[in-house]
Design goal:
single chain, alpha/beta, four-stranded parallel sheet, 4 strands, about 55% helix, globular
Length: about 260
Protein backbone atom coordinates (compact mmCIF):
# COMPACT_ATOMS: atom_id res chain seq x y z
CA UNK A 1 0.00 0.00 0.00
CA UNK A 2 0.91 3.66 -0.28
CA UNK A 3 0.86 5.65 2.96
CA UNK A 4 0.39 9.42 2.49
CA UNK A 5 1.23 10.89 5.89
CA UNK A 6 2.32 14.20 7.50
CA UNK A 7 5.95 14.92 8.27
CA UNK A 8 7.34 12.34 10.68
CA UNK A 9 10.78 12.13 12.32
CA UNK A 10 10.96 8.49 11.19
CA UNK A 11 8.37 7.52 8.56
CA UNK A 12 9.88 4.01 8.39
CA UNK A 13 8.53 3.16 11.86
CA UNK A 14 5.06 1.98 10.69
CA UNK A 15 6.69 -0.23 8.05
CA UNK A 16 9.21 -1.60 10.53
CA UNK A 17 6.30 -2.36 12.86
CA UNK A 18 4.58 -4.29 10.06
CA UNK A 19 7.75 -6.30 9.44
CA UNK A 20 8.28 -6.94 13.17
CA UNK A 21 4.73 -8.06 13.92
CA UNK A 22 4.56 -10.29 10.83
CA UNK A 23 8.06 -11.72 11.33
CA UNK A 24 9.12 -10.42 7.90
CA UNK A 25 12.47 -9.46 6.40
CA UNK A 26 12.78 -5.70 5.87
CA UNK A 27 14.27 -4.12 2.72
CA UNK A 28 14.72 -0.35 2.34
CA UNK A 29 14.64 0.77 -1.32
CA UNK A 30 14.20 4.47 -0.52
CA UNK A 31 15.97 6.66 -3.12
CA UNK A 32 18.04 8.45 -0.45
CA UNK A 33 19.09 5.10 1.00
CA UNK A 34 20.17 3.67 -2.36
CA UNK A 35 21.64 6.92 -3.73
CA UNK A 36 25.16 6.36 -5.05
CA UNK A 37 24.73 2.58 -5.16
CA UNK A 38 24.30 0.69 -8.44
CA UNK A 39 24.55 3.84 -10.61
CA UNK A 40 23.14 4.07 -14.11
CA UNK A 41 21.68 0.93 -15.67
CA UNK A 42 22.98 -1.20 -12.79
CA UNK A 43 19.89 -0.12 -10.82
CA UNK A 44 17.93 -2.80 -12.72
CA UNK A 45 20.14 -5.42 -11.08
CA UNK A 46 19.49 -3.83 -7.67
CA UNK A 47 15.71 -4.06 -8.06
CA UNK A 48 15.90 -7.59 -9.45
CA UNK A 49 18.13 -8.77 -6.58
CA UNK A 50 15.98 -7.18 -3.86
CA UNK A 51 12.73 -8.67 -5.14
CA UNK A 52 14.34 -12.07 -5.76
CA UNK A 53 15.81 -12.22 -2.24
CA UNK A 54 12.53 -10.91 -0.79
CA UNK A 55 10.64 -13.78 -2.43
CA UNK A 56 13.24 -16.32 -1.32
CA UNK A 57 13.19 -15.09 2.30
CA UNK A 58 9.44 -14.48 2.43
CA UNK A 59 7.53 -13.10 4.18
CA UNK A 60 9.18 -9.78 3.32
CA UNK A 61 8.41 -6.07 3.46
CA UNK A 62 9.98 -3.72 0.90
CA UNK A 63 9.86 -0.08 2.00
CA UNK A 64 10.20 3.05 -0.15
CA UNK A 65 10.16 6.49 1.46
CA UNK A 66 9.29 9.63 -0.57
CA UNK A 67 7.75 7.26 -3.08
CA UNK A 68 5.76 9.97 -4.92
CA UNK A 69 9.05 11.50 -6.09
CA UNK A 70 9.92 8.20 -7.79
CA UNK A 71 6.97 8.74 -10.15
CA UNK A 72 7.77 12.37 -11.05
CA UNK A 73 8.77 12.52 -14.74
CA UNK A 74 9.44 16.28 -14.82
CA UNK A 75 13.25 16.46 -14.92
CA UNK A 76 13.30 20.10 -13.80
CA UNK A 77 11.23 19.32 -10.71
CA UNK A 78 13.23 16.13 -10.06
CA UNK A 79 16.46 18.15 -9.76
CA UNK A 80 14.99 19.91 -6.70
CA UNK A 81 14.92 16.61 -4.79
CA UNK A 82 18.73 16.45 -4.61
CA UNK A 83 20.85 13.31 -4.59
CA UNK A 84 23.50 11.97 -6.96
CA UNK A 85 20.97 9.91 -8.92
CA UNK A 86 17.41 10.89 -9.95
CA UNK A 87 14.68 9.45 -7.73
CA UNK A 88 12.82 8.16 -10.79
CA UNK A 89 15.62 5.80 -11.83
CA UNK A 90 13.91 2.87 -10.10
CA UNK A 91 10.43 3.58 -11.51
CA UNK A 92 10.58 1.42 -14.66
CA UNK A 93 12.05 -1.64 -12.96
CA UNK A 94 9.83 -1.17 -9.90
CA UNK A 95 6.65 -1.34 -12.00
CA UNK A 96 8.02 -4.36 -13.85
CA UNK A 97 8.80 -6.22 -10.62
CA UNK A 98 5.38 -5.31 -9.19
CA UNK A 99 3.65 -6.94 -12.15
CA UNK A 100 5.58 -10.12 -11.42
CA UNK A 101 4.39 -10.34 -7.81
CA UNK A 102 1.73 -12.91 -6.92
CA UNK A 103 -0.18 -13.36 -3.61
CA UNK A 104 1.73 -16.56 -2.92
CA UNK A 105 5.07 -14.70 -3.00
CA UNK A 106 4.25 -13.13 0.40
CA UNK A 107 6.05 -9.88 -0.46
CA UNK A 108 4.52 -6.56 0.63
CA UNK A 109 5.65 -3.29 -0.95
CA UNK A 110 4.95 -0.24 1.24
CA UNK A 111 5.54 3.31 0.02
CA UNK A 112 5.36 6.43 2.22
CA UNK A 113 5.00 10.01 1.04
CA UNK A 114 4.67 13.36 2.78
CA UNK A 115 3.87 15.07 -0.53
CA UNK A 116 1.90 12.63 -2.71
CA UNK A 117 0.60 15.49 -4.87
CA UNK A 118 4.06 15.91 -6.40
CA UNK A 119 3.10 13.12 -8.83
CA UNK A 120 0.72 15.32 -10.81
CA UNK A 121 -1.22 15.00 -14.07
CA UNK A 122 -0.10 11.92 -16.04
CA UNK A 123 2.27 10.88 -13.24
CA UNK A 124 -0.63 10.79 -10.77
CA UNK A 125 -2.50 8.17 -12.78
CA UNK A 126 0.53 5.86 -12.87
CA UNK A 127 1.29 6.53 -9.20
CA UNK A 128 -2.23 5.76 -7.97
CA UNK A 129 -2.52 2.73 -10.24
CA UNK A 130 0.64 1.15 -8.86
CA UNK A 131 -0.91 0.39 -5.45
CA UNK A 132 -3.62 -2.03 -4.40
CA UNK A 133 -4.41 0.10 -1.34
CA UNK A 134 -3.85 3.71 -0.30
CA UNK A 135 -4.02 4.54 3.41
CA UNK A 136 -4.12 8.11 4.67
CA UNK A 137 -2.42 8.48 8.05
CA UNK A 138 -3.88 11.75 9.41
CA UNK A 139 -2.70 13.82 12.33
CA UNK A 140 -4.00 12.61 15.71
CA UNK A 141 -7.18 14.36 16.82
CA UNK A 142 -7.98 15.54 20.34
CA UNK A 143 -9.15 12.13 21.57
CA UNK A 144 -6.12 10.40 20.11
CA UNK A 145 -3.70 12.91 21.67
CA UNK A 146 -5.26 12.29 25.10
CA UNK A 147 -4.33 8.63 24.70
CA UNK A 148 -0.95 9.19 23.02
CA UNK A 149 0.62 11.46 25.66
CA UNK A 150 0.30 9.06 28.67
CA UNK A 151 1.32 6.14 26.46
CA UNK A 152 4.48 7.90 25.30
CA UNK A 153 5.52 8.80 28.85
CA UNK A 154 5.00 5.19 29.96
CA UNK A 155 6.97 3.98 26.95
CA UNK A 156 9.97 6.15 27.84
CA UNK A 157 10.00 5.22 31.52
CA UNK A 158 7.99 8.11 32.94
CA UNK A 159 4.52 8.72 34.29
CA UNK A 160 2.22 11.71 34.45
CA UNK A 161 0.71 12.70 37.81
CA UNK A 162 -2.87 11.66 38.58
CA UNK A 163 -4.07 15.29 38.58
CA UNK A 164 -2.12 16.26 35.42
CA UNK A 165 -4.20 18.50 33.11
CA UNK A 166 -4.19 16.15 30.12
CA UNK A 167 -7.08 17.97 28.45
CA UNK A 168 -5.11 21.23 28.17
CA UNK A 169 -2.01 19.43 26.87
CA UNK A 170 -4.10 17.67 24.20
CA UNK A 171 -5.49 21.04 23.11
CA UNK A 172 -2.08 22.75 22.98
CA UNK A 173 -0.52 19.94 20.92
CA UNK A 174 -3.00 20.20 18.05
CA UNK A 175 -1.32 20.00 14.65
CA UNK A 176 1.62 17.85 15.76
CA UNK A 177 2.27 14.39 14.37
CA UNK A 178 2.55 11.45 16.76
CA UNK A 179 6.24 11.10 15.86
CA UNK A 180 6.86 14.70 16.92
CA UNK A 181 5.18 14.06 20.28
CA UNK A 182 7.37 11.00 20.73
CA UNK A 183 10.47 13.13 20.06
CA UNK A 184 9.29 15.59 22.75
CA UNK A 185 8.88 12.91 25.41
CA UNK A 186 12.12 11.19 24.42
CA UNK A 187 14.08 14.45 24.75
CA UNK A 188 12.41 15.43 28.02
CA UNK A 189 12.81 12.13 29.88
CA UNK A 190 16.56 11.97 30.26
CA UNK A 191 17.96 9.52 32.86
CA UNK A 192 18.51 12.41 35.28
CA UNK A 193 14.96 13.72 34.78
CA UNK A 194 13.46 10.27 35.37
CA UNK A 195 15.23 10.05 38.72
CA UNK A 196 13.62 13.35 39.83
CA UNK A 197 10.05 12.45 38.79
CA UNK A 198 8.87 11.61 42.33
CA UNK A 199 10.14 14.87 43.81
CA UNK A 200 9.38 17.04 40.77
CA UNK A 201 6.45 15.80 38.64
CA UNK A 202 6.25 16.86 34.99
CA UNK A 203 4.08 19.91 34.31
CA UNK A 204 2.73 21.51 31.13
CA UNK A 205 5.29 24.39 30.88
CA UNK A 206 8.12 21.84 30.89
CA UNK A 207 6.47 19.87 28.07
CA UNK A 208 5.80 23.05 26.09
CA UNK A 209 9.48 23.96 26.39
CA UNK A 210 10.32 20.79 24.46
CA UNK A 211 7.27 21.00 22.19
CA UNK A 212 8.58 24.31 20.84
CA UNK A 213 11.65 22.47 19.54
CA UNK A 214 9.70 20.29 17.10
CA UNK A 215 7.80 21.48 14.06
CA UNK A 216 4.05 21.24 13.72
CA UNK A 217 2.50 20.19 10.42
CA UNK A 218 1.21 23.34 8.63
CA UNK A 219 -2.56 23.41 8.20
CA UNK A 220 -2.27 23.86 4.43
CA UNK A 221 -0.15 20.69 4.18
CA UNK A 222 -2.68 18.70 6.21
CA UNK A 223 -5.52 20.01 4.04
CA UNK A 224 -3.59 19.16 0.87
CA UNK A 225 -3.13 15.58 2.13
CA UNK A 226 -6.85 15.25 2.81
CA UNK A 227 -7.73 16.58 -0.65
CA UNK A 228 -5.27 14.20 -2.29
CA UNK A 229 -6.62 11.26 -0.30
CA UNK A 230 -10.16 12.11 -1.46
CA UNK A 231 -9.02 11.61 -5.06
CA UNK A 232 -7.71 8.08 -4.51
CA UNK A 233 -9.79 5.43 -6.35
CA UNK A 234 -11.28 3.87 -3.20
CA UNK A 235 -12.41 7.13 -1.55
CA UNK A 236 -13.51 8.61 -4.88
CA UNK A 237 -15.71 5.55 -5.47
CA UNK A 238 -17.20 5.76 -1.97
CA UNK A 239 -17.92 9.48 -2.26
CA UNK A 240 -19.27 9.01 -5.79
CA UNK A 241 -21.66 6.29 -4.63
CA UNK A 242 -22.78 8.45 -1.70
CA UNK A 243 -23.36 11.40 -4.04
CA UNK A 244 -25.36 9.22 -6.45
CA UNK A 245 -27.44 7.89 -3.57
CA UNK A 246 -28.14 11.42 -2.30
CA UNK A 247 -29.03 12.58 -5.82
CA UNK A 248 -31.35 9.61 -6.27
CA UNK A 249 -33.01 10.31 -2.92
CA UNK A 250 -33.43 13.97 -3.83
CA UNK A 251 -34.83 13.03 -7.23
CA UNK A 252 -37.27 10.57 -5.67
CA UNK A 253 -38.41 13.19 -3.20
CA UNK A 254 -39.01 15.79 -5.94
CA UNK A 255 -40.97 13.27 -8.04
CA UNK A 256 -43.14 12.35 -5.05
CA UNK A 257 -43.75 16.03 -4.35
CA UNK A 258 -44.78 16.65 -7.95
CA UNK A 259 -47.15 13.63 -7.86
CA UNK A 260 -48.78 14.85 -4.65
CA UNK A 261 -49.19 18.32 -6.16
CA UNK A 262 -50.82 16.84 -9.24
CA UNK A 263 -53.18 14.79 -7.11
Amino acid sequence: PALPCPALPCPALPCQAIAHLSGSCFFDLSPRNTDGHYPGKAVAMLLHMVFKVAKTMAPSVIYIDEVAKVFVSDKKKAKEFGGQEPFSRIKKELLRELKGLAPGDRVLLVGCSREPWLAAKKDEKVFMGAWSKTLHMPLPDYAARRLIWPGLFARHGGKLAYDFDLSTLAQLSEGYAAGALDAVVSGLLTPVRRERLKKQPIDIPEILHWLCRVQAVPQEVDEALHKWADRTPALAAIKGAAADKAAAAAGGGSKKGAKDEKT
